[in-house]
Structure prediction request, 198 residues.
Amino acid sequence: MTDPFVEVIDEATLADRVAQLGAEITKDLGDIEPVVVGILRGSVPFLRDLAKGLPLRSEIDFLALTRFGYDGKVSIAMDTSIPLDGRFILLVEDIVDTGLTLSTLRKMLLARGALEVKTVALVDKVKRRIVDVPVDYAGFEVGDEYLLGYGMDWQGKYRNLRSIWAALDLSVLQKDPLALAHRIFPEHAVPAGRSAVR
Ligand code: 5GP
Prediction:
């Protein structure tokens, strides 16, 4: 039987690319004081590592979205605590797929008076885009496999995986949501998060 899971981006490759993105963004920022806004919950591991390479004058905040309907409509479930009007915003997303989330949020923040909104996504599924939204910085371009790890989840799990895996057959996860955990750590009946995160 073919393996339904494959590691597509390992830890070292992730670390190198995230550091490169940080350096590139920092260079472009010049003396701008950005508010780095992470979209909960998927952006957390990426933002944590990216922020280490951003200027110390950056501020960090988060917002959470509620998705409804099949057309990807979003509303804000948890807002930022820093007022964003007149500010330069770096919007941080784990993965851009159709582009609906990023596009809606970008417009929302500009309508609220943000000075400028730049976007950074760790992973970009370019071919699946249905709305045109600028992804100013993208870590990796990928195909349309379902990805897990480093912020990306299946039913809330696997966000704390250190590297990125693709699920080639989603029915395996539908049957057993812990199938990838058992694949990576076959020695653990219930894999400990401790072995998956540093
Ligand atoms: P978009 O609005 O661009 O279609 O979707 C973005 C959101 O869809 C991401 O923030 C993420 O929550 C979810 N998503 C899209 N593709 C994947 C994927 O391959 N894996 C996971 N875990 N989530 C995905």
Remarks:
- The domain at 11-142 is CATH 3.40.50.2020 (Rossmann fold).
- Residues 11-29 form the longest helix (19 residues).
- The helical segments are 11-29, 44-51, 100-111, 170-175, 179-184, 193-196.
- The first strand starts at residue 5 and ends at 9.
